[in-house]
Structures
1.
Amino acid sequence: MSKKQKVLITGGAGFLGSHLCDRFLAEGFEVVVMDNLITGNLKNIQHLFGKDGFTFVKHDVTNYTFVEGHLDYILHFASPASPIDYLKLPIQTLKVGAMGTHKILGLAKEKGARVLIASTSEVYGDPLIHPQTEDYWGNVNPIGYRGVYDEAKRFMEAMTMAYHRYHGVETRIIRIFNTYGPRMRLDDGRALPAFMGQALRGEDITVFGDGSQTRSFCYVDDLVEGIYRLLMSAETMPVNIGNPAEISILDFAKEVIALTGSDSKIIYKDLPKDDPKVRRPNIDRAKSILNWEPQVSRTEGLKRTLAYFKSEIYGVPQV
Ligand code: UDP
C-alpha cells in the first residue's frame, strides 16, 4: 500500500499557511501544521480539525523540531509578516527567520524532504530598480525598523542556498509580494485590512504619507497556485510571485471606499520609516518556468475579501 505524501507547514495557522493547508489536503497530502500561535490563530484552521490526514502541533520552530515518520515536503511559512507585527515582535521575527530556518533545513536534510521557504519582496528593501527582478540585490537598511524582517529573510535565503549547495538539500525559494484575501487579520496593520475595516465602520481612512507610494496586490488563491507549482518544479533559484497590477496607496484607498460604498474620508498620517516608495514584481521567471500568472483581478479579489471582513465585523457570513 502506498503511503500518502506528507507535508509539514510551519506557520500553518496564519493567513497564508491556512490556505496552503486547504490546498495540500485537497491534493490528497497528509498535512502537519506547526505554529506557536503568536500571530497565527486556530480559527483559521478550525475547519480542518478531525479531517483525515490533518495534524496540528503547537510548537515554536526556533527550537529543536521533529516530525515522526516520513516527510516529503516542508513549507516554511512561520514568521510575523506584517510591519505592525514584526515591529512588535522584532526578536521573534529575527529568531524564526534565522534559527527557525536552520531547524527546518536540518529537518529537511534528516528526512530527505524538499523544502520551500517563504521569502519576501522585502529582501529588495526600498528598491532602486523597478519593477523588481530576482537578480536585483536590494536596498535594505539593516538597522532600521524593517531590518528585523528584511535581514531575517535575507539570512533565510542565504542559509537555504548553503544547505542546498553544501548538503544537497532540495530547496525552493519564493519571494512573495503583497498578498490579500480571506483570513487576513483585520488588526494586522496592513493597508488592505486597515482600509476595509475603516470603511466598513465608517471611520476615517488612514493613508500614510501622501499616498503616492505604490504596491501591487495579489489574491491569495493565485499565490497558493504559484507556491504549489514552484514546489513541484525543479527550480532552486528564487522566484517572484505576485500580481504586477500596481496602484498608488491613495488610489487604492479610493478604490476601497468606492467598493464598500462608505462615506469615510481620507486622512493623512506620517509615512513610517523606510516604507518602500514603489513595489511591483517582474514575474517573467514565474511565467516562463512555472507557466504561472495571476488569474484573479483586484476587483474580484477585493469583493471576495470584503465579504470575509463583513462577516468578521458583523458576525454573520455576507454573500
Ligand atoms: N499604509 C497606509 N495606511 C495604513 C496602513 C498602511 O497608508 O493604515 C501604507 C503603508 O505605509 C505602505 C502601504 O500602505 O506604504 C502598504 O502597507 P502594508 O502594511 O500593507 O504593507 P508593506 O507593503 O508596506 O509591507
2.
Amino acid sequence: MARIVMKFGGTSVADLDRIRHVAAFVRREADQGHSVVATVSAMAGETNRLVALCEEAGPPDPALDVRGVEYDAVVSSGEQVTSALLALVLQKQGYRARSWQGWQIPLQTDSAHGRARIQDIPPQNLSDAIDQGEIAIVAGFQGIAKADRIATLGRGGSDTTAVALAASLQADRCDIYTDVDGVYSTDPRITKQAHRQDRLTYEEMLEMASLGAKVLQTRSVELAMAYGVNLRVLSSFVAPDALNPGTVICDEEEVLEQKIVSAVTLSRDESRISLLAVPDEPGRAAHIFSLLAEHGVNVDMIIQSPARTSGANISFTLPASDLDHAVPYLESAKALIGYDRLVADRDIVKVSVIGVGMRSHTGVASTMFNTLAERKINIHNISTSEIKISVLIDAEYAELAVRALHQAYGLDKGVA
Ligand code: ADP
Ligand code: ASP
Ligand code: MG
C-alpha cells in the first residue's frame, strides 16, 4: 500500500462535472488500497477573478495591501471551495473524504503574502487521517503565516502544495494532473509540432519552469529536487483507466536518452529597464541593485556597456509584473545614482533552449543564433548557464522564434 499525493489544476476542477471526473481518479487510487492526499486549485479563471476584485477594491498603493494579507484572504478562497466540493462529491459516492484548509494541517509559511514560502508541514494531522482510511482533500495554494493570517504561495502555487505535501508525508508518488498529458518539448499551444517528453531531469524541469513553461511552478520543482520527490505530470482529461504515462521528472541517471536540447520555452513576463549614462565609477551598480533588492525586485539579465556620451548604460530585465513597482524607486534615486535617462520596455520576451546534453556538446549557441538570424530576429540580450541559453527578443517575434528553434534542434514531431 502506497502513499500518493495527487494534484488537480484549475481546468481539471473547472465545474462540478470536472470535479466528478477527477473524483474518479482519486477513487481509483483509494480502491487499490493506497492512502490518498489530493490537493486542488481553484476553478479555472476563479483566481484571476478574485485578483481583479482585490485590485478594484483595494488601496491604490500596493504596499498598503493589494499584495498583502487581505489579498491573500480573498484569493485563497477559490481553493477552499473546490477542496470542499471534491470532498462532498466523494462522500456522495460513499467514500470517507474530508477537506483541509492550509491552517488546519497546518501548512506553515513565511509572511511574504502573495508569494509566501512554505516553512514547515508537520505531517501528523494528515498522516493520522489517511492512516485511518480517510481521503484528505487539501486546498492548494494556501497556508498559514505568522499571526495566524492566511498566506498564498504565488500563482501556480498548488503545484508547490502538492510537492511539499509529498515531501512531508514521504509519499511514494506525487502526480500532477493537468490539461495536457505531460510536459512537452515546448508549449503545445504555440506549435502542434510539440511532443510529450517521457522523462526530464529535475534540472531541466527547473530551468523550464523558471523560463516560462507554466506547467509546474518553479518552487515545486526546487522542492521535488531537494527532497527527491517522485514527480509526474499527466492528464486529467482522459478516462481514469486510460493509458496515461505522462512525464516523469527524475534524476539524470534515470534518463536513458539524453537529448542535447529537450525543450524550448517562452517567457512573456519580461520587461527591461535601461539607465543611460550612469557615471562610470565604483559603487553605482551596487547602489542600483541594492535598491532593487531592498524592494524585493528580482533582476535577471544585466548588461553594462559604454554610453555614447559619457559613463555607462546599465540595462537589466525583470518580471513585467514588477516594472511599475521598480521604476518609482529608481526615479526617486535618480540624483544619487546619477543617471541621465531611464527607459522602460515591455515589448520584449525571453526565449530559451534547455537540455542537459548541452554540457557535453558544442554548437548549441551557434545553432540558436543562426536560426534567429535567418528569420531576421534581433537579439537584445543573451544569458547562459550550463544547461540553457536564453535570448531577449522583441515580443512580436516570440512565436516565430519558438517554432524556428523547435525545428532547428530536431524537436518537431516525427523527427524527435
Ligand atoms: P493547471 O491549471 O493544471 O495548473 P496550468 O495552466 O498551470 O495548468 O499549466 C498547464 C499549461 O501549461 C498547459 O495547458 C500548457 O499550455 C502550458 N505549458 C507551457 N509550456 C508547456 C510545456 N512545455 N509542456 C506542457 N505544457 C506547457
Ligand atoms: N489558483 C492559483 C492560481 O491560479 C493556484 C494554482 O492554480 O496553482 O494561481
Ligand atoms: Mg498551474
